[in-house]
Amino acid sequence: MPELPEELVLPEGFVPAELPDPPAVPRDAATVMLVRDGAPGLEVFLLRRVLGMAFAGGMTVFPGGGVDKRDADTSIRWHGEPPAWWADRFSCDEALARALVCAAVRETFEESGVLLAGTDGTSVVSDTRPFHAARQDLVDREYSFAEFLAEHGLVLRADLLRPWANWVTPAAEPRRYDTRFFLAAVPPGQTPDGATTEADEATWQTPASALAAWKSGDRLLLPPTWVTLTELDEAATVATAMAAPRTIAKITPKLVHDGTHHRVVLTD
Q1: The Nudix hydrolase domain covers which part of the protein (predicted)?
Q2: Domain boundaries, the chain
Q3: CB of 159 closer than 8 Å to CB of 81
Q4: pLDDT tens digit string along 153-191?
């Protein structure tokens, strides 16, 4: 894993003056790095969260969010590696593994408009515009993702996702997430739009250019995002990234104050 640079510090006011005691229990979450092959090489889809949000406001992130308890619905038609396979990769039980994969697909659709589903295990939706209204209903929790898939005769394409990492928010922060990171290629014909109230900017960048923008102060990155971009920068193409072997261990960084800034250090 890349070593975090000393200049990767948290913005002023990001950490509350009084730390929670006892620490908050992390909420299960999923995030997805959407990638494509562009002219300059592998590109990743990035969102900048609206400034002032309770968690990670102003930060550049990948699409994702918390698990909904309904994401574990066993009625979902599923194609790809079974929940037991994902449970082994993320060191969790099968029910949570099922919910994490469903949350990854659901949150990606809600925040970017990309839908990793098809009418069967060999197809994938090429035009998501007919599902625009349903997308907002999902955001508003009007119905579950299982109900959405069933209503439109769709199969969740778990085979389009690859497991990447598992990061847990430091114990010192009041809002904590146990986040599993996934990698997915944007399906042919689909275009991420970033039409979500949680973001004020959506863009494609190579990992190297996103890291350069952080270095110049034009982007704010949390440590997991910085590490992931650094890892993705090693892949020349989507195929290379998707085939990269990954050994996933839960990473729980520690928050420290160096006398001037709060920064994150990785601990064993």
Answers
A1: 25-227
A2: 27-265
A3: yes
A4: 999 999 999 999 999 998 888 889 999 999 999 999 999
Residue of 31, 44, 55 whose CA lies nearest to 229: 44
Judge residue 156's burial from the number of C-beta atoms within 10 Å of its C-beta, 0-12 exposed, 13-18 middle, 19 or more buried. Answer: buried
Q: 């990061």: which residue's tokens?
A: 167
Give, rounded to a whole angstrom, the gap between the first and last alpha carbons of the chain: 12
Quickly tell me which residue has 């969260």 as its tokens: 49
Give CA–CA dist 152/45, Å, rounded. Answer: 26
Dist. CA 143–CA 165, nearest whole Å: 29
List, in sequence order, every residue forming a beta bridge with 185; answer none if it has no partner: 35
Distance from C-alpha of 32 to C-alpha of 115, rounded to nearest angstrom: 12
251, 168 in Cβ contact below 8 A? yes
Q: Are 178 and 105 in contact (CB under 8 A)?
A: no
Q: What is the largest CA-CA distance in the chain?
A: 57
**Is it true that domain 27-265 has CATH number 3.90.79.10?**
yes
